[in-house]
Design brief:
The chain is mostly helical and 163 residues long. The protein has helices at residues 19-37, 39-43, 47-50, 52-64, 71-85, 93-96, 101-118, 121-126, 134-149, 151-161.
Length: 163
């Protein structure tokens, strides 16, 4: 699939901590891949960003339990994780399908940039499952977030998570 940030990510080679994490990761990726392979999904301009949803979620979870992450950053991470798994967010997956992950991706990039500023890029890179440089991926998402999800929605998300 050409519009994937981490096409060659082979799930058999990913060392996820336990079966539950791997199942969740695979479930989200499969749902998004199925959408992107549909006629509607192939036309979606921001499809390559959708596949960042499970990678960002995994990264948020790993950082939230790392001893080198400050308590205030952990609170931000837990809030982002709650947003990801909540059925009632600003673009709910239950209503809009896999397109509903796009606000989660934008939020993930926003929070991860804050975490990098509070900790270190190396710590974030340590848990990154994607192939491309995580710092560049975060920057890429943030550059298009306003256009990708709409400026009004993007402002609401940033307001929710600015501390």
């Amino acid at each position: 699939m050409e519009n994937n940030y981490n096409d060659n990510n082979n799930l058999e080679n990913i060392q996820l901590d336990n079966k539950e994490n791997k199942d969740f990761y695979e479930k989200i990726r499969k749902k998004i891949i199925n959408y992107l392979e549909s006629e509607k999904g192939r036309k979606y301009k921001y499809g390559k960003y959708l596949l960042l949803a499970p990678d960002f979620f995994y990264l948020l979870c790993k950082l939230s339990v790392n001893k080198d992450v400050s308590i205030s950053s952990k609170a931000l991470l837990f809030s982002a994780i709650a947003y990801y798994i909540s059925p009632l967010d600003l673009l709910p997956e239950i209503i809009v399908g896999p397109l509903g992950f796009i606000d989660d991706v934008a939020l993930g990039a926003f929070v991860l940039r804050k975490i990098i500023n509070d900790t270190s890029p190396e710590l974030v890179e340590k848990y990154w499952l994607g192939e491309k440089n995580v710092l560049q991926v975060i920057q890429d998402v943030l550059k298009v977030a306003d256009e990708m999800i709409g400026s009004g929605l993007w402002k609401k998300i940033k307001k929710l998570f600015n501390n």
